[in-house]
Amino acid sequence: MDNLNIFCFGFGQVAKKFISKINSKKININLSVTSREKSNKFFYKDIAYDNFQFDENTFDQNLIEKLKSSDHILISIAPIKGSEIVIRNFQTVIENSKAKWITYLSATSVYGDHKSEWVNEESETNPTSTNGINRLKAERSWMMLASKRNLPLQIFRLSGIYSNKKNILARLKSEEVKIINKDNHFFSRIHLDDIANILFKSLLKFKRNEIYNISDDKPASAKDVILYGAKLLKISTPSTIAINELENGMLKNFYKDSKKVDNKKMKSFFSYKLKYPTYIEGLNYIRNNFI
User: Which of 23, 217, 247, 278 has the fewest CB atoms within 10 Å around its CB?
Assistant: First the structure.
């Protein structure tokens, strides 16, 4: 794996961390990405890359040749207005590309509400949120395309992402945080570093048409995470409000679902030991090094 031709649909935090991981291994990268910005050549750290403008309405035609010649394709663009815009615009190009690794980043919101029980990759998908419904629809579109054209596809269902920059400690320091009063509400999370590490592992060990939950070992309530964060920062416990007092629609949707996401398949197949097995290790590291 001396040289990689990588095409990233979307160049957000996950894609950037993944590219950083590859670069840290001294692997040569020929990188192309899409964003809403005008097409241009940019640098990410010391990596030169081509940025092609792409949104729900238009795209730079020059990206087609780059996409055709790419051997690795990462899709981190969420559905827009219920539409999987990568397939809509580039299905034929991807079918005829040189890709030997295609990864679609989905979300565990596809499971919906499981009444605080455990879910794995074989569990029923019955999403309740618009995001979850659209993600599941996109997953099925990719699986159908991969099956029809024998494409090398894997799907990563990501739990709630936190990072060294974006996390509950930063929120507690910079904005008002409230504890939502809802008993027996569980959700799972994953540190950005672990996502990048697993993506890198999958470059070396890959099985087509597989779905993996990308999650840490300890599902917990938002309340538990907030309380631990406040303890680390040595600040007073945030106030509590009833769930029916929430005005934020996205937050209301978040509290509709309660589930514990099983990560055994991910850890077993990729022989991966989590860098941050739980939010405790993750937040401790952030507190000691970034705050």
Answer: 247
